[in-house]
Request: fold
Amino acid sequence: MKKIVVFDFDGTLTTADTLIALLRFARGTGYLIFALLLFSPLLVLMKLHLVDNGRTKERLFSFYFKGMPVEMFDEFCRWFVDEWGESLRRQSTWQVLRQALLNGDDVVVVSASIDNWVKPFFGDMAVTVVGTQVGVVDGRLTGRFTTPNCYGAEKVRRLLAVRPELRQSRKDYFVVAYGDSRGDREMLDFADERHYKQL
Reply:
């Protein structure tokens, strides 16, 4: 039986929300506070579940990065991981991930974060990363997302997109999932073995 080990990213493999960390890294704490105050009405509506969290995240991302050449953004994401990645890693869960790879398990990371900065965390590790994807036109970021925010039921849809064999009989596969928030509930329910909150 093949084991597929699925991890959420923010809060599970990291100790913080990496979008907020990236924004702070980009322009400093003062500018981040300004941006959060500027978007505070939308953030409040999101917390009250009156506005989709993907829309809110998209607006904040666009405020920072719309119009940036995608090559520059990718380089910036790699720099962010080089500088802050180690301090953001939750070492206990990373050890589980490394052990899964040593065991020969199929490891998939399914994240609501944008895959441009999630992928560099794994370097050349044999990890499939599934994240929210950003739009690019003429080599520049549009500020819009080209996929639904990878949250909740979307995590299961995206997992099935990269592992379509799970749509068929599950008797040949055993799915283990790790998550830490409401956005992981459907993914955890889908798994045969689930681990909720940090190790």
Observations:
- The chain has a mean pLDDT of 93.
- The longest helix spans residues 18-38.
- The radius of gyration is 17 Å.
- Strands lie at 2-7, 106-114, 127-132, 134-137, 140-145, 173-179, 193-196.
